[in-house]
Inverse folding.
């Protein structure tokens, strides 16, 4: 399979940050949300806010409940306790279709044995807006083509979705979110398995969508660069939340990730964070 | 699952997936294909009622049909026996084949999407085996609680029990898992097959075993006008409902997270689909016995032409399934005439090689792509 074949990627497209977001962004708020799968409690009394238009990053070690928390924002998992509010309304009091018009999700599905073309996948984003027997309108098709062009994969439209590389798949799913015209965007590890250039391109695209965004993200430095607000999760609880400068600090991150964290100053910008294993003796020669 | 992985190899654009690509030309092309198939189906029905041990020309068949509908238009110049054969035996039988073929193909397509597994078909989710056990049970035990309808009712109820059992086994706190549904269906199918075999084995009369076997392999010979009414309404209503779910089925096939995020709760949809599919399978098995292969092969054949979009796959599968079963029944009647083969023998004999060819075409294509 030609997956992740660099030469097959399209050239980087110029990303226009001023994507026309058809709908005004909505705020999102979770208050004391407790989530469990079966008898296993995964998130405990999590509260967080995403103001309209903000990009919120969720950071935390593996198994800290990031994915589970995100699933509660698009009705995949109903909280045992607590409330999720989208705009003014409780998520679970809205109709599923109405939620789908407000919240778009970019998450990789497990591979299936059935093939859809990239264009078909992107066009699925229109389904919350269509009735049962309705065909795609000319406006719908126009939206799909525009979104494909916007994320730079217009020429991949007739290809089978499963033959795309990881970066191309993320672009297609972002295009799907664009045609969905939702007002909140949820992404689960959008940069996973991507090489550095595609990580940056995907995050630029996300920023360009211009709606309220909540994403889980592994790379703390990328989180610092692209997020307005960061929530640090550990063992399903919020350990810290706030602005990048307040939260992404050695004091917060060291106990959460169990590593040593160092600030590395950078000319003309925010200092980078450098991580070392606690068992690593470090660069100093032992005395 | 090796076979499923092989089946999974995508078309990669070599197969005539041009129809799947949208745009005005492709949509016109797809509509043209549907119209052509519909016309072929009507012509096939007329041909099917003229074929058989009794020699009746297509022209006569037409005139008998017109005479039945508008008696004044055509003056009868044929033996009364021919009229009986065409109108009361062959025509209802052909229509039953069309109805059952379309139903099995659509049900197979929907089941494959529900459990996201290309090997799913009505026979592996417990319904067909349950129906067979019910029907063979009343044949062997000689019960008759609702007269001539006993067999159909027993098959219908058996089918619902089979599906229901698989459903209950597959449901857990976490919802209805597609993989568990397949496994539970297979377990239930084995259970009911064992019951059926045992019933046939303990039966005293040889004739019983023969009737049971014939019925299990499928037979359309019992088609009569007065039995077609209610099942027709059920099947047509079910098919229309499933066609209306085409977009939701696409989302379900792509993944549960996607379906949820597009406002289609997957568990709820699966439950409703399960009930519809159970009723449709039960009805078609009650009418025609356990016809195999249509529900497995036809959906795949349809997808190879138009891709996975159910708005195209479902109508195409319905028409192809109808044609396939109609001609299979003609063969079943003609091959060893005046005796008949069970139709399931024909669908498997024709279907298995066709399936093998589809599989090979697919494999060859993906080798190219690599």
């Amino acid at each position: 399979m030609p997956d992740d074949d660099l030469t097959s990627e399209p050239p980087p497209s110029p990303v226009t940050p001023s994507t026309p977001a058809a709908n005004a962004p909505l705020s999102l708020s979770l208050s004391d949300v407790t989530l469990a799968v079966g008898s296993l409690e995964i998130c405990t009394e999590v509260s967080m806010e995403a103001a309209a238009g903000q990009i919120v990053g969720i950071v935390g070690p593996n198994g800290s409940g990031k994915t589970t928390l995100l699933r509660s924002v698009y009705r995949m998992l109903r909280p045992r306790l607590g409330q999720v509010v989208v705009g003014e309304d409780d998520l679970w009091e809205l109709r599923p279709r109405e939620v789908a018009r407000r919240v778009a999700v970019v998450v990789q599905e497990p591979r299936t044995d059935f093939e859809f073309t990239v264009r078909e996948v992107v066009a699925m984003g229109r389904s919350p807006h269509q009735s049962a027997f309705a065909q795609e309108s000319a406006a719908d098709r126009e939206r799909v083509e525009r979104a494909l062009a916007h994320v730079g994969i217009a020429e991949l439209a007739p290809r089978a979705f499963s033959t795309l590389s990881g970066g191309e798949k993320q672009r297609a799913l972002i295009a799907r979110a664009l045609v969905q015209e939702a007002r909140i965007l949820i992404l689960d590890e959008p940069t996973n398995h991507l090489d550095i250039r595609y990580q940056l391109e995907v995050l630029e695209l996300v920023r360009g969508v211009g709606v309220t965004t909540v994403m889980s993200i592994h790379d703390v430095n990328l989180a610092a660069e692209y997020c307005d607000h960061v929530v640090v999760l550990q063992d399903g609880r919020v350990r810290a939340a706030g602005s990048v400068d307040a939260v992404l600090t050695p004091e917060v991150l060291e106990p959460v990730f169990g590593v040593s964290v160092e600030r590395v100053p950078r000319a003309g910008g925010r200092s980078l964070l450098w991580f070392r294993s606690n068992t690593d003796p470090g660069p100093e020669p032992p005395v | 699952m090796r076979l499923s992985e092989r089946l999974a190899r995508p078309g990669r654009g070599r197969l005539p997936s041009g129809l799947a690509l949208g745009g005005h030309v492709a949509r016109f092309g797809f509509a043209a294909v549907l119209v052509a198939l519909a016309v072929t189906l009507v012509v096939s029905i007329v041909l099917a009622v003229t074929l058989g041990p009794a020699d009746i020309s297509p022209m006569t068949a037409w005139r008998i049909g017109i005479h039945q509908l508008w008696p004044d238009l055509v003056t009868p110049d044929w033996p009364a026996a021919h009229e009986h054969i065409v109108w009361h035996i062959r025509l209802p039988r052909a229509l039953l084949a069309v109805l059952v073929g379309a139903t099995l193909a659509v049900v197979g397509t929907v089941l494959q999407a529900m459990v996201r597994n290309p090997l799913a078909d009505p026979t592996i989710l417990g319904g067909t085996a349950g129906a067979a056990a019910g029907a063979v049970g009343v044949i062997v035990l000689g019960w008759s609680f609702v007269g001539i309808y006993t067999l159909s009712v027993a098959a219908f109820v058996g089918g619902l029990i089979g599906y229901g059992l698989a459903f209950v086994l597959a449901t857990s706190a976490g919802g209805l898992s597609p993989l568990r549904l397949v496994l539970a269906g297979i377990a239930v199918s084995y259970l009911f097959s064992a019951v059926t075999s045992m019933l046939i084995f303990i039966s005293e009369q040889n004739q019983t075993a023969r009737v049971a076997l014939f019925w299990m392999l499928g037979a359309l010979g019992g088609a009569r006008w007065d039995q077609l009414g209610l099942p027709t309404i059920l099947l047509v209503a079910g098919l229309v409902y499933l066609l209306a779910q085409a977009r939701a089925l696409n989302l379900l096939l792509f993944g549960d997270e996607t379906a949820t995020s597009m406002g289609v709760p997957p568990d709820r949809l699966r439950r409703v689909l399960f009930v519809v599919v159970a009723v449709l399978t039960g009805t078609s098995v009650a009418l025609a016995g356990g016809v195999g292969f249509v529900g497995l092969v036809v959906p795949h054949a349809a997808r190879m032409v138009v891709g996975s979009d159910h708005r195209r796959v479902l109508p195409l599968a319905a028409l192809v399934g109808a044609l396939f079963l109609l001609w299979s029944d003609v063969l079943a009647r003609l091959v060893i005439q005046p005796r008949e083969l069970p139709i399931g023998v024909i669908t498997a004999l024709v279907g298995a090689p066709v399936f093998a060819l589809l599989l090979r075409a697919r494999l060859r294509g993906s080798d190219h792509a690599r």
